[in-house]
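Hi R.,

As promised on Friday, here is the backbone we talked about, encoded as structure tokens. Could you run it through your design pipeline when you get a chance and send me back a sequence?
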């Protein structure tokens, strides 16, 4: 439902956050995603931090209440059953303190927690002390189980958050989803199927979930058996940034951060291992086949956010952004795999723009950062708080009244917001 024009965009964004609040956690959007998603929730906290700091801390504390004994923080917490979502808790068989999925998601939380702490250290101190060892354990889980040449790997396309990006096409083709059985998707009853992953994708998504459930999400067993392991720019750049911010938080709290500093060095090397010199771009690498994905994606442009400069990436950025009216597309528009409305195969995502924009601003590319902020603000002002957008026309796609789009509006894109 569109709010009346008289309500300002800031107020609309606040209404969306409040409307998606289920009491201690925020759903990405009603219907399509009725639970607490990991990185959505971290963005929600950043949004709430602009209007209600206690609620922002509550959001991340509810997320970490689902942390597993091995340190992993799941990508979905199923707080209250909802038959309108598939696959639910029974399919996953998560083994943590709250019903959950069995994989994680890009760990943006530490960065927003550090920002929240910096905004009001007195109010944040007790929360930060409580969360610091939990974040440390989560980051350690990635370092223990997910590294290849120092880059962070995913074991399921949903783990990167970029479900159906062409980055995984090669690795997905290596899976024969034999025995996956009959199932009924729910996502396509909420959203036009042409904007969602295909049945080919879903068969493989479920087959991987079934394998994880069978192995009780034992990481050592998964490492041996799973046929999907891709070193991912999203995970690598986001974790590198998150470790830098966790180190700052640790120093502010008087903690020993030497382990975190070593992890940063490892991840810096890992990020360079994602450089595809033929493509001239940071790319995903299929660890099992050794093949590049050959994809210029919006995750490729997270290098500045992670603290890594690259003149070649600036040239890629200028080329790709010039190809569409509403950058940054999730896949290169000049590629024959580009599909402007199908989820992560082309559409523009406001929250990715926010991360890219933060990186550009911090690394000294103020003009590009400002242009991206303005383009994103125009996109939302003209087309609403959608999940994602057609980069050519700006048309809204996926779910509506979306939490992270509202959150990045308040925290980053709104003209009323001072620069980040
Ligand atoms: C979905 O249900 O589409 C989600 O992306 C899985 O995390």
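Update: got your reply. Pasting your designed sequence below so it's all in one thread:
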């Amino acid at each position: 439902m569109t709010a009346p024009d008289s309500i300002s965009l800031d107020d609309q964004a606040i209404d969306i956050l409040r409307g998606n609040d289920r009491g201690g956690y925020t759903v990405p959007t009603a219907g399509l995603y009725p639970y607490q998603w990991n990185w959505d929730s971290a963005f929600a906290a950043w949004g709430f931090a602009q209007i209600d700091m206690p609620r922002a801390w509550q959001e991340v504390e509810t997320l970490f209440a689902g942390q597993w004994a091995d340190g992993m923080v799941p990508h979905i917490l199923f707080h209250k059953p909802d038959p309108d979502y598939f696959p639910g808790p029974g399919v996953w068989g998560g083994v943590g303190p709250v019903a959950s999925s069995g994989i994680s998601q890009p760990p943006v939380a530490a960065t927003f927690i550090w920002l929240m702490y910096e905004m009001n250290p007195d109010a944040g101190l007790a929360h930060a002390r409580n969360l610091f060892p939990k974040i440390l354990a989560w980051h350690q889980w990635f370092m223990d189980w997910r590294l290849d040449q120092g880059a962070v790997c995913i074991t399921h396309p949903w783990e990167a958050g970029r479900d159906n990006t062409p980055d995984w096409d090669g690795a997905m083709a290596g899976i024969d989803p034999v025995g996956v059985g009959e199932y009924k998707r729910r996502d396509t009853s909420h959203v036009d199927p042409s904007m969602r992953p295909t049945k080919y994708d879903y068969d493989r998504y479920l087959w991987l979930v079934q394998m994880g459930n069978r192995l009780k999400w034992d990481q050592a067993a998964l490492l041996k058996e799973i046929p999907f392991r891709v070193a991912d720019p999203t995970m690598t750049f986001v974790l590198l940034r998150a470790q830098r911010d966790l180190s700052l938080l640790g120093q502010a709290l008087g903690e020993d951060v030497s382990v975190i500093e070593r992890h940063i060095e490892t991840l810096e090397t890992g990020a360079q291992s994602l450089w595809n010199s033929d493509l001239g771009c940071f790319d995903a690498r299929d660890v099992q086949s050794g093949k590049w994905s050959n994809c210029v994606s919006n995750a490729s442009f997270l290098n500045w956010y992670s603290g890594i400069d690259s003149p070649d990436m600036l040239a890629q950025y200028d080329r790709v952004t010039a190809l569409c009216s509403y950058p940054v597309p999730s896949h290169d528009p000049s590629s024959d795999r580009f599909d402007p409305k199908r989820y992560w195969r082309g559409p523009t995502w406001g929250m990715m723009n926010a991360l890219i924009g933060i990186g550009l601003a911090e690394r000294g590319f103020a003009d590009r950062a400002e242009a991206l902020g303005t383009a994103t603000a125009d996109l939302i002002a003209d087309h609403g708080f959608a999940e994602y957008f057609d980069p050519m026309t700006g048309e809204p796609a996926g779910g509506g009244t979306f939490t992270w789009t509202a959150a990045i509006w308040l925290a980053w894109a709104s003209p009323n917001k001072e620069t980040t």
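One thing I noticed while checking it: Residues 6-413 form a domain with the Glycosyltransferase fold (CATH 1.50.10.10).

Thanks again,
M.
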